[in-house]
Write a structure and sequence with these properties.
This protein has about 200 residues and is mainly α. It contains eight helices and no strands. The longest helix has 30 residues.
Length: about 200
């Protein structure tokens, strides 16, 4: 595959066939907890997308330009988490400054982006798959957009189900997990269209 086409293919694969949330099941805790309201879901989805798009290539640069030359690859987990935490802190300060309502509705889940396994997972996939800097950026951006689409779809479905008669045993987390399962099957239906490893 051409040098230009490969990052584009990785981008679309990260959104659909290799969705970090629905095919790799990373970041499910905040996905299930925050997806009750559309506005909150949109805010968290945008924040996760921004953090993924910035930290994945930044972690690539630190890994290949600092850790690998000095043979410090074993520190990658700690270094990746520190970089992710710094950007999440920046996002938190910006959201608090410009949208207090969103800041309070996200609550504890905003600082928890730091330990969102989807964000760390994207950086680790980037290392394991030996992506280039550009490909890492497209992978991070695509993973964020895929996560955003998934949480917005879940929020929309849960919003529509508010007036529905759901059996008592399935209310709350039960129906949310069933919806997530159906959504995962729908995204897995894209498998085979674009497969990047």
């Amino acid at each position: 595959m051409g040098n230009f086409l490969f990052p584009v293919a990785v981008f679309f694969a990260a959104i659909f066939t290799d969705n970090i949330l629905l095919t790799n099941y990373l970041g499910m805790c905040s996905f299930l907890a925050v997806s009750k309201e559309l506005e909150t879901s949109a805010g968290l989805g945008i924040a996760v997308t921004f953090v993924l798009a910035v930290t994945t290539p930044l972690n690539w640069a630190v890994y290949y330009l600092v850790l690998v030359p000095f043979q410090l690859e074993y520190l990658r987990f700690i270094v990746f988490i520190i970089i992710i935490a710094a950007f999440v802190q920046l996002i938190e300060m910006v959201i608090e400054r410009y949208s207090e309502n969103l800041y309070f509705s996200l609550g504890i889940f905003l600082p928890l982006i730091t330990v969102n396994c989807a964000i760390l997972g994207a950086s680790l996939f980037m290392v394991i798959r030996e992506y280039s800097f550009i490909t890492s950026f497209f992978f991070g951006l695509g993973s964020g957009i895929g996560w955003f689409i998934a949480i917005m779809a879940m929020a929309g479905i849960r919003n529509k189900l508010r007036g529905a008669k759901i059996p008592i045993g399935l209310e709350g987390a039960g129906i949310a997990l069933i919806i997530a399962g159906f959504m995962a099957m729908a995204f897995m239906g894209f498998s085979g269209m674009i497969q990047i490893t």
